[in-house]
Amino acid sequence: MTGRPTKRPVRPAAGQRAVPVPGKTMIRLEGTAARTMRLGHGRLLAVALMFGIGFCVLAGRLVELTVVRGGDGAVANLVPGTIAARPERADIVDRHGLLLATNLSTASLYADAREVLDANRAARRLAKVLPELSLAATAEKLRSDKAFVWLKRNLTPALQDRIHRLGIPGLYFREEQRRLYPHGALAAHVLGFTDVDGNGIAGVEKFFDEELLRRGHAGAPLQLSLDIRVQHALRDELGAAMAKFSAVGAAGLVMNANTGEVLGLASLPDFDPNHPGASPVTSRFNRTSLGVYELGSVFKVFTLAMALDSGTTNLSGSYDASKPIRVSRFTIRDDHPKKRRLSVPEILIYSSNIGAAKMALDVGGKTQRAYLGRFGMLRRPALELPEVGAPLSPSPWRDINTMTVAFGHGLAVSPVQLTSGFAAAVNGGLLLPATLIRHQPGQRGLGVRVIGERTSGQLRRLLRAVVEKGTGGKAEAPGYLVGGKTGTAEKAGVRGYRRRALISSFVAAFPINAPAYVVYVMIDEPKGIKETYGFAAAGWNAAPAAGQVIQRIAPILGVRPVHLGGPAKRQAMAVPGQGGERKVAAN
Questions:
Q1: Domain total for the chain?
Q2: Could you tell me if 520 and 415 are in contact, meaning their C-beta atoms sit under 8 angstroms apart?
Q3: What are the start-end ranges of the H helices in 178-226?
Q4: Contact criterion met (CB below 8 Å) for 538 and 487
Q5: What are the catalytic residues?
């Protein structure tokens, strides 16, 4: 018989309780199965509770690291990515935008000593990676129970990775900014350096410390007046001269004669600002801006300038230089005496101390001081460096001082002062403050009138004659009109002057008919050599070094060479205002 099967209810087994199922017949579980289900629910609840507690602990730890210790820059154990402790400093660039100083992100290692489990063992393991660390000092730090102790700053990525792999509890990394100087020692005395915390310690880094931080926030570099190509040529030639003449030091400067911008400033010996502590402290002394010296006969340029400008004498005047001058216990004599009357131009060309002293007496001490003050010789120059020396001048200023200052003894100034004053003497008579900050194109700067344009033109002709016929002959740079003056001075000692310890210097302008640039070279205690017949005067060492600098930088600066013969030469040396002045664009 066929038909539909009959549905029969499913009965629970013995000991079971029916459990309702939606849409189905309810099954009830009882006995052992019910107890098993209740036990499973309890265990699940316990596990969930444990996970909750664990998450709370981790969250608390995260809050401690990121909020409570956030001011220390702490991060999770051995995780390298952090926030820098100090705002980033702006880059420093040269006048063409080439990088002179920048920042490099590095990791620094510190410890939370409270978390270090075994200080001695941790110190031994660290010493294998960082052998420069003192094992005893490191272990002591790790036992100090302090929340923050520095272990090593500015690690390389390779060292950071090796320390990370040690897995030592309580060690942390903090990201910092290390100052980097790509050119090494090339512009060390200009740039200076920073300490491990990024604070400016010397040079431009210190002078513009706050400005560099402000510019760092804005992302704007600090642009200097330096031309790194000029800086390289200057430092290279100074180093060569220093080595050749076994000198104890050297200094040099290249300045735009019409703006006061410093294109090159070097002092030797120098140091690597990336590792300033690796060099002797004495190498950080800036001879160019901080050192003040009696610079000798280069001062005769100022003596002639004031005599001509004040009307005390003129180019057709003359002075008797046949005999030395004796004043009390002092004797003023010429190194290469002509033993005759010398014209005013000859006093500069042959560098006569006797003629310059008599000329200064005619000018008078009061007028001499006034002119030297206007030339910037009696006050500290306003250069953007913390290392700037103040001049040393005689007090009281007697007649003997008037005479000795006339040829560069008795008044000590820095090479920066001398170069700025010389630029004023040849650029038309305007003193422009020396500056390490780049001017905008066409910006001349605010100058102070020191002497008249006519006097400046006369000086340019005389300075060219010094190179053509006088003591500066070895400064000649073929193809370029160079005019300048030598200066050789004995260094002051405990008891009088040291005759064998000389400061030899040469200051030049080129092209001298329309000066665009001034070059100053100083060699500290040069020694005579066979090539110079044993002489150590400036004409034998500083003058040729300056000529070499000019020969190298003139093409870089866009100064075209000229043919120096016949009418072209006479036209080149024409006095301003008489139809022969040639303009040269300053880079």
A1: 2
A2: yes
A3: 188-191, 203-207, 209-218
A4: yes
A5: 297
